Amino acid sequence: MNRRALYAAAIAVAVLVIGAVLTPGLASWPGLRAVLVVASFTGFVAAGQMLVVLVGGIDLSIPWVLNAAAIVLTTTSLGMSQRLPVALALAIGAGLAAGLVNGLGVAWLGVPAVVMTLGMNGVLQGLTLGLSQGLTCDDCGHYAPSPLRDLFAGTVPAALLVWLGIALLVTVLLRLTVFGRRVYATGVNPRAAFLSGVGVKGVTVALYTLSGGFAALAGIMLVGYGGQASLGLGDPYLFESIAAVVVGGVSILGGRGDYVGVVAGSLTLVAVTTVLRAQQVPEHGRLMIYGLVILAILFAYGRERAHD
Amino acid sequence: MRDLQDRLGYLVLIATAVAYFAVYTTSLGRPPGSFDYLAILNTTMPLALVAIGQSLVVLTGGIDLSVGGVVSVCVAVTAATGGAPGWILVVLLLGAAAGLVNGLIVAFGRIAPILTTLATLSIYTGAALWVLPVPGGSIMPEVRAVLSNPNIPTALGWLALAVAGWWVLRRTRFGMRVYAVGSDETSARAVGIPVERVKTAVYALSGLCSALAGVFYVSTTTAGDANAGAPFILTSIASVVVGGVAFTGGRGSAMGAVAGAVALTLVIDVLFFAGIDPLYQSLFQGLFLVVAVLLGTAAALLARRRTT
Amino acid sequence: MTVEATGIHRAFGGVLALRDASFTARPGEIHALAGENGAGKSTLIKVLCGVLRADAGTVTVSGRVATAFQELSLLPDLTVAENLLLTAPPRGRLGLVRRSHLAAEASRLLSLYGVSEIDPRSPARDLAVSQKQVVELVRVLALEPDVVFLDEPTAALAQREVDWLAGHMRRLRDGGACVVFTSHRWREIERLADRVTVFRNGTHVATRERLTEDEAITLMTGRTLDATYPDVSAIEVGENALTVTGLTSGRLRDVSFDLRKGEILGVGGLAGQGQRDLFLTLFGARKPVAGQLSVGRSRISARRQPPDDGRVVARRAFGAVARRFGVHRTGERWSLRGPKDAIRAGIAYVPEDRKAEGLLLPLSIRDNIALTTLTRRSRAGFIRHQAENAAISDVTGKLAIGAGRATSRAAGELSGGNQQKTVMARWLLTDADVFLLYDVTRGVDAATKHDIYHLIADLARNGKAILFYSSETEEIAHLCHRVLVLREGRIAAELAGPVGDAEEIVAASIRETADA
Questions:
Q1: Complex ipTM, two decimals?
Q2: How far apart are alpha carbons B253 and B58 in whole angstroms?
Q3: Which of C158, C189, C222 is the last residue in one of the domains?
Q4: What CATH code is assigned to B2-307?
Q5: What is the pTM of this model?
Q6: Under a CB-based contact definition with an 8 Å cutoff, are residues B244 and B4 in contact?
Q7: C69 and B CB contact within 8 Å
């Protein structure tokens, strides 16, 4: 594990402790649970964002992949529990497919990641709005099936276990498998990795595909949390996912980072916002402090090396 | 063929303009009139200005996400003060200062451009909300008459001024240095170019361009909104890309980006007159973006085939 | 004007490039800086001209300074004209650059320095290497400097261009300038230099007015040369391991040759005659225009994707489409689509530029060595760590990589020699039959070079086929059974070896073709 991930974890703990002192509610389990649940959404999208950032890419299609998946879920499940498995498969499948196209465009057609994923974001936004007639379609108003909503009930919501599972999965994938080794090799130096027999393009495609899948997962979880799909559901997660990744100590240039750090980064960002809300800091103050916190963290451990 | 890639923006603009003319004429039974051209001009001006700034940054190999925040805060101040000439000067200085902060952090703080401007985006957007918590404000009619007069093409004069500004900039030592830094930073440093100063300056100029865009935005829409800048982040990047500016830096021109901005605006009209449901609008914009870039890549590939 | 440096230290990521280095050059002299690759010459020049800061020590350089860098400092997207006139472009009214005058001004400048045949409007990235070098030199000369540093200015130049440069160097010297240059060609040093300074392992060894080549080599390596090469003539050469027929790729034109088991086949010639294209194409990293490649490999059927007769063929016949979409022809032939296929066919490639093409510097030594053979020590995609540790400690022990260092340390912390051994270790684990060694001793200290020579000889003794290129012709002369001399992409001569005398290879490299 890299040192930056530890810094990220330390900062997350520090923010939570400061928050608990300022707002006693945060020190209770319900208070902390609320933070964890909200942070899990950031955690899901940031998992995908981290994977593409590890190979020096970026995924700007997250907002509408997320939103599209959310709407696919509600419109195919129609609120019925027995349709949930199929709906889940379709929603995740849609995310994976979008990610796959991103990956193919970036790796095989050589379209810059920013352009490819930005274009994909637009395409999915148009498709989603058009096909759902601006979310006015007959099936658009359905609630999420109850098993999905139940993920957020209870003392220890199952949604948090899902996050824990994803955290383990991503960590194991990156640290214990052949694929993980190839990911880091590609991220550090694609040319050297290629000349060492690593299928750089295949790795890249796989990572973008996974990122699409994670964005879709976040969309599904958000529908379960909010009960219904809405338009613009994913918009906050574009920049938040990037912020969580870098606050989590992942190098934006690729090749370095761990999901543990990203979990800490997600917690930090959500905790900052939660504490500021609890302190009744107005929105403009929250935005400015949020930016300053990210900047401070970047200065602490996000700097590039000197030029000589 | 290399030239083709460099002129991508103009070619795309011509193609879009032809499509616009054809679709408009078939749809309404008459060619577009001066009123239509004026409307297009006035609505494009803010984006064209932001795109000029964005292209300068991209030419050095960077990216500026904070244009959204800078436009917002400048819109907010202009609208809140009614756009008195003195205040416009303040707004321009404010924008340049905001950009300068970005530049200093990127160049001397050694934080990746995308991360720096992501953080300052939040800060500047917060500042905009602070100044203008609810949409509103106004613009002095005299200012509007001079900037974006709805009856006579005053904006054309300002656009010409922007083009002239670029023409001059391209012919200064600074202009050459911008390309040098984007082409190969290490070599630029080795031949004695003050890379840090050049970078700082392009971000400051980008801020200034965003400020101008903010003023024009208020002048065109006659009111302000603290979130007015947000759409410009992605559209300015799209304009730069369609305009043929290479994301790796060193290639392209601000005029290409202006052409890209006009083309992107025209596409919306083309879709409208072609009778396409506006809900699908972003689908076509997304495709447009990716296809434009693919054309550029294909041109470059052909050029390489031919030379070797 | 003076050039004086004393007590210079400079490290890169823990590796000391200069240690307590001193250097003095006088006005009105041409001063050659000699030393092996990795002796610190380039670093010294960068410190002297101010591009790099010294970690310790003092540097005094006064006067107008200009430097031609070894890796060149042309800006690829700018035109030749813009590159030449970047610092002093032609200006018109209002002090604005007259862009329309740039090309004419650059043309004038080029012809003033006796250069024709380079289009000032062409982007620098489109130039051939030698043209880039010439433009870089004109850029430097045009500054009419008092102090000029030229780092390997002739590496990519043909004889005629070398003469051209020599004339300008003498002219600058006679005008009172101080000219410092580095070169790997002793004859140039002998011909041009008023004084020679020799560097070894990052420090100053000697400065002399007269120095024979033998003395220089002794000073540069710290020992006599002959003792350093293993005797390869006793190694038994077996059957064909690799057959190349009609290969055209990049600069290569219709190259055909055989490489046998146990054979060390040298590839000689001046720099940039297609050697790199040859190595990269054989490894699948560059797409050939035409040609076939057969790898005789009895064991290939033991692996996945067994072509019936164990032959790998890269050919134009099924063209770009097949390669682009990865359509394998079943049966006896399949296309070599990339390094993955080459590795599977038993080919290994060790590049010269470890940092750019070989190592993943921030990753551990273990990760670097294991990378190519990960799947062999995995179960269901999971790495078997015990097997990996065993394999790694076995190979690192055999190669004595960084004795006593944990293999979990970053490869970037190793010295140049140990870095190169780490790359070699990676390929030893693949059980490859054919080793493509491209300038593997560049930037490696003398002791490690010695190790690498013996390692190569051992590989050959074990029946491996070795294709060997080195920028130091001496190595090719002493280490190879046979030498192919490339000129302008073609095999210009084939010499039986060990040649022993580098002069013979050099002569074959520059001799005008009789049949041309």
A1: 0.90
A2: 10
A3: C222
A4: 1.10.3470
A5: 0.89
A6: no
A7: yes
